Amino acid sequence: MTSAFAALDLELIAMQLFSGVALGAVFVMLALGLSIIFGMLGIVNFAHGNFFMVGAYAGVFVMERTGSFWAALLVGPLMVGALGLLVERFLIRPLAGRSPDDPLLLTFGLGYVLVEGVRILFGSDGLPFATPEELSGVADLGIGYFPIYRLFVVGVVALVLVVLWYGLERTRLGLIVRAGARDPEILRVLGIDIQRLWLWVFGLGIALAALGGVLAAPMRSVNPEMGNVVLGEAFAVTVIGGMGSLMGSVVAGLLVGIVVSMTALVAPEMASIAMFAFMALVLLIRPQGLFGKPGLGV
Amino acid sequence: MNPVPQAPILEVEALGRRFGAFTALEDVSAVFGKERITAIIGPNGAGKSTLFNLLSGALAPTAGRLRFGGRDMTRVPQARFAHLGIARSYQITNVFPRLTAHENLRTAMQARASRYDFWSRRDALSGLAERADALLADIGLAGRRDRPAASLAHGEQRALEIGIALASDPKLLLLDEPTAGMGPEETKEMVALLRRLGETRTILLVEHKMKMILGLSERILVLHHGRLIADGSPAEIQADREVRRVYLGQSGGYGHA
Amino acid sequence: MQTLDQTVVDAPPGAVKPQRAPRVTAGFSRWRAPLSILALLTLPFLLPSQALAVNVLIYGLYAVGYNLLYGYTGLLSFGHAAFFGTGAYVTGIAIGAYGLHPLLAMGLGTVAASALALTVGAVSIRSRGIYFAMVTLALAQLVYYAALQASSWTGGENGLRGFTVSRIGLGPVSLDILDPQVKYLFVLAFVGAALALISRILASPFGAAIEAIRENETRARACGFDVERSKLLAFVLSGLFCGLSGALSAIHLSIVPLDSLAYHTSGMAVVMTLVGGAGTFFGPFVGALVVLVLEDVFSLWTPHWQLALGTVFILFVLFLPRGLWGSALERLSFRRGQS
C-alpha cells in the first residue's frame, strides 16, 4: 500500500520535474536574448516580453496563412527578428552615447506600442493556439507519460543552444562577439564595424524571444498582455543567472522552471510567487547572480 | 595650522591585493609621516593605482595591514576614511558635473559634518558656505563660484578635483596624477599649490612627470610588477641601479615613463 | 544649484554664460512649494471634471515621490506600484475590515508602504546600475501576485471594495467628501503638505547628499557619504510619498483595483516623471497632467489610446529627454543668462 503511494508520488514528482524543465526551456530562450543584447549593447530591453508576445502572434499569423506549424516556428521568429533590426536601426542607435537609462526607457515605451499594435491587428481577446497534431499526445519515457509537445520544446531549445554554442565558440563571428562582450574597445582597435554587429545581435536576441513565444503559445494562452507578465519572469531569471552570462541564463532558466513547477505541486497558490522569492533569496546571498561577475553596474 | 606630525601618520605593513589569480600588489611595507610630500612612481601596471585604492579604502587588501594615526584601517569602510582624515583625488577628473564649483566643495565638506539631516537648510549649515568660499579662493576658483563644474576649463576642473579632496581638511592627502593633461603653465601653478598644501599636511602623490617629482618630493617610492623595489630620497632613487634598469628598459630614460 | 528645478547644464566649456543666474533663482527654491500649491488650486477651473483634477493631484504626488528617487538620487526603479498599491490596500482594509478612522487608516497605509520600501530597498539597493530597474520590477511582481493570492484580504482580481468613505470627521467638523470641491481641497491639503516637506528635504543637507550620489557615486563615497544608507533612506522616503498617494487614491475611488499594484502602474510613475521633467520640482505634476488629459481625450476616440501614450513617450526619450517642464526651465535660465 505505502510503496504504491511512494511510486505514485515519485512518478508525480518526475512529471512535475519534467514540466519544470519544459517551462524553464522557454525561460532560457527569453533570458538568452536579454543577456546577449545586454552583453553586447549594454541595453536592458524592456520590450523583450512584448517581442515574445509578438512572436506568439506572428506564429498565429503564419499558421493561419499556411496551415503549417513548422512554417510558423521558422518564419514567425524571422519576421519578429526583422522588426528587431528596424528597432535597433531607427530607435536605439540614435541613443548611442546617452545614459544607459535611455534605451531602457525607450524600449519600455515601445512595449506600449507593441501591445496596442497587436490589439489593433488581432483584437484584445486572447487567441487559441492548438498543439500541432503531429506533436500532440503523450510518450512513455519509462518513468512516466510525458506530453510530446513539451518534449519537443525541450528538444528545440537544446538544438538552439547547440547551434548558439557552436556559433560562439567555433566561428570567427563568435570570437568577435565574445571579445566585444568583454571589451568593446578591442573591436574598435581591430577595425570591426560595431554598429553592424550590434544590429545583428539585437535582431538575434529578439528572434530568440519570438521563438520562445511561438514555442510557448500552445502551452500558455496567447493574449496581448502576456508579454508584460513574461517580462518580470524573464528579469527574475536573468537576475538569478547573472546579467550578461549565457551560462547563467541556461542554468537559471531551468532552475526557475523547476522551482515554479515543484512549488505548484506542494502549494499551487504560491507558484507564481516562488520565482520572485527565489530571486530575492539569490540577491541576498549573491547580489551579482549565480554566474555574474561582481561589481557589474552600468 | 597644524604642524607636520613627527609620529608616523600612515603605516603600511606587508600590504597586498589579488584579483582572482592575478596579484596586483604584493608585500608592500612603508611608514609615512616625516616627509611632507612623497611621490610614488613606476611603469604602467606597476600597481600604483591599486596601492592608492587600498590607501583610500576604495579596495580592501587581501593581505597585510594598514594603520592610520595608530588605528587599524584594514577593514574600515571607505566612507569612514574620509571622516578620519584621508582624502584622495582622481587621475581622471571626477567632480560633480552639474553642481556649481561652490556646491561641489560645500557638498564635499558636508560629508563630514552632516549626512542624514533632512530638516535644516543646507546653505545655513554652520559656516560651510563660507568655508567653501575660502577654499574656492585658495585653489584660485573664486571667480568661478557659480559655474557648473562641467563648464570649467580642464585646469580649473583639476583644481576643483583637488579642492574636493581638501574639503574634508584631511591629514593625509592622496593625489593621483594631479597634473594629468596640464600644460607647462598650469603645471607650474599646480606645483606651487602642492608646495603650499605640503606645509600643513602629508601628501602622497602618483606622478609621471619626473622632473616635477624630483623637484617637489622629499621621498620617492618605486613600484614595479606590484612590488616595492626602491624607497628613498630623490638623490638615492636617481642613483639606484634597479630603478635605472627598470626605467631604461621601459622607455630609455626619465621623462615620461 | 538651487533653482526651482535642478537646471541641467553639461554644455562645453565657455558655453554657459549665466555667471550669477543661479543666485538670482536661488530664492525661488523657498517659494517652489507655495507656488506649486497655488498652481494646483487653479486646476479644477481648467479641467473638464473634478474627478480628473483629483486624479492629477494623486498621480502627481505619486510621480513627485518617484522623482525623489529617480530624478534626485538617480535610481531608476520600475516597481513603485508596490508602494502606491500597498498604501491604497492597507488604507482600504483598515477602513473596511476594521472600521478605522479614515485619517488613521491613511496613516497606516503610508507607514505600511514605507515599511515595504525599506524591505524592497534593502534587497535591491545592493544591485547597481541597470540591474536595479530589473530587480525592483521583479519584486513588485512578487507583491502583485501575493495580493492576487491573498484574495480574502484584498478581493483578488475583483479589487478591494466595500469601504466607501462619505464623511470624514475632524473633531467638531465633518467633511462631506462626496462634495467634489471638498474632496479636492481635502486631497490638496495632503498633497500640499507633502510638497512642502519634499521641498524642505531637497533643500537640506540630505538633499545635497543624494544629489552628490546622483552626480558621481564614486566621488560621493570617497568624500565620506555612506552611499548605500543614503540611497536606502531616499528609497524609503520615496515609498512613503508614493504610499500616501495610494492612500489618497483609495479614499478618492472607494475601491482599490488590483491594477494599482501592476506593472502598468509602476510604468506610469516613470512616464509621468520623464514627460514632465525628471529632477525638477514641479515637472512630475506637469507630466501627470499631460498624461491624464491625454488619456481623457484619446480614450473618447479610441480604445487604443496607449498607442499614443507609447509613441509620445518614445518621442520624449528621443527628442526631449528633459521633459516639458525641464526643457522650459532650461530655456528660461538660458535666456536670463543672455540678457
From TrEMBL, chain A:
InterPro entries: ABC_transp_permease, BCAA_transport_permease. The keyword Thylakoid does not apply. PANTHER family: ABC TRANSPORTER ATP-BINDING PROTEIN, BRANCHED-CHAIN AMINO ACID TRANSPORT SYSTEM PERMEASE PROTEIN LIVH. It comes from the Bacteria. Belongs to the binding-protein-dependent transport system permease family. LivHM subfamily. CDD domains: TM_PBP1_LivH_like. It comes from Methylobacterium goesingense. This is Branched-chain amino acid transport system permease protein. It is a multi-pass membrane protein.
Automatic annotation (TrEMBL), chain B:
InterPro entries: AAA+_ATPase, ABC_AA/LPS_Transport, ABC_transporter-like_ATP-bd, ABC_transporter-like_CS, BCA_ABC_TP_C, P-loop_NTPase. It holds the Pfam family BCA_ABC_TP_C. Residues 10-250 form the ABC transporter domain. GO terms for molecular function: ATP binding. SUPFAM superfamilies: P-loop containing nucleoside triphosphate hydrolases. Keywords: ATP-binding, Nucleotide-binding, Transport. Transmembrane segments: none annotated. Belongs to the ABC transporter superfamily. This is Branched-chain amino acid transport system ATP-binding protein. It comes from Methylobacterium goesingense. The lineage of its organism: Bacteria, Pseudomonadati, Pseudomonadota, Alphaproteobacteria, Hyphomicrobiales.
UniProtKB/TrEMBL annotation, chain C:
It comes from the Bacteria. Keywords: Cell membrane, Membrane, Transmembrane, Transmembrane helix. It is a multi-pass membrane protein. It is found in: Cell membrane. The keyword Manganese does not apply. The keyword NADP does not apply. The chain crosses the membrane at residues 37-62, 69-97, 103-123, 130-148, 184-211, 232-255, 267-294, 306-325. InterPro entries: ABC_transp_permease, LivM-like. PANTHER family: ABC TRANSPORTER ATP-BINDING PROTEIN, HIGH-AFFINITY BRANCHED-CHAIN AMINO ACID TRANSPORT SYSTEM PERMEASE. This is Branched-chain amino acid transport system permease protein.
